[in-house]
Amino acid sequence: MRLLDREGFLGPVMILPAVLYVLALVGVPFCLSLYLALTDAKIASSELSFVGLENFRSALASPTFIKSLGNTFIFTFVSQALVLVLGKVLATCLTKDFVGKSVLRFLILLPWVAPISLGTIGWKWMLDSLYSPVNWVLQALHVVGKNTWPMWFGEKDLAMAAVIAVHVWRLLPFSAVIILAGLTSIPREINEAADVDGAGFWRRELYVVLPLQRPILFVAGLFGIIFAFTDMTVIYVLKRGGPAQATQVLASLAFFTGILGGDLAGGAAISLFLFPVLVVVAVAMLVIARRTEVT
């Protein structure tokens, strides 16, 4: 019993199950991907040989890979910027008292708790080139003409805008809940003191609320970047990377190459390019968040 009372012993024992879980969930697949990427493994083939870094060199020489890498950054950072801004606006609105607030909170969470594939199929129908209710609304508002309907999945820029919009719709509730938790944790006396000093809405948001919320915003941004960087459900269901690879990202390209294309080694090599980028982003954002919290 005395041994269990020691903090130096009890701490590692308590955290050991979480460490083992992370190693089993992340470490084993990562090591397997690294092993496959160094071979010429194919689906339905029991023979493989060591090829070194050939799969990585082949990926870097592929125009599709370069295009997918650029699309990944565009998809991730544009969608996450929109999620943080809209999440901040939504969370600020939810701090106010109004009729139907509890019902609105429930409806806001639906995109996050509903199956993403089901929601994305709904968006695929709503953005259909012939029967799109979105286009009908835009026409009713005189934003587009009757014969100038946007082809959401037929044009490259519109296709990327469509997948970003659907991803923002999916991730917005998660970000809003995190930011709302940060807003409710701010002592009411601080906002009251700002009101007494004559600070308006924007001055209070920029110089009082936002500095106190920076650690929370960095955490929300970190999780959002990880989700966006590794997400392929929206891409796969809506357009499968089309048209002409305009919406292809690294996660979907790895799936198409390794699973649908049968090239396990090539798909594993492509997926491993996500790892160093995510590590750099995670470390940078955590360091910035820590410095912000300390200051």
How would you describe what is shown here?
The structure is a single chain. The chain has one domain: MetI-like (MetI-like fold, Orthogonal Bundle). Helix 3 (63-94) packs antiparallel against helix 9 (201-230). It is flat, with a radius of gyration of 23 Å. The protein contains 13 helices and no strands. It has 295 residues and is mainly α.
Summarize the structure.
74% of the residues lie in helices and 0% in strands. The chain contains 13 helices and no strands.
Strand content: under 5%
Give the CATH H-level superfamily: MetI-like
CATH fold-level assignment: MetI-like fold
Q: What CATH architecture would you give?
A: Orthogonal Bundle
In helices, the fraction of residues equals over 70%
Q: How many DSSP helices? A: 13
State the order of secondary-structure elements, H for helix, E for strand: HHHHHHHHHHHHH
Question: What is the alpha-carbon Rg in Å?
Answer: 23 Å
Low-confidence stretches: none
- Helix-and-strand structural type: mainly alpha
Assigned CATH class: Mainly Alpha
Tell the overall outline.
flat
| Largest sheet: number of strands, sense, barrel closure | none
Number of E-type strands = 0
- For the record, the count of structural domains works out to 1
Mean pLDDT equals 84
Termini Cα gap: 41 Å
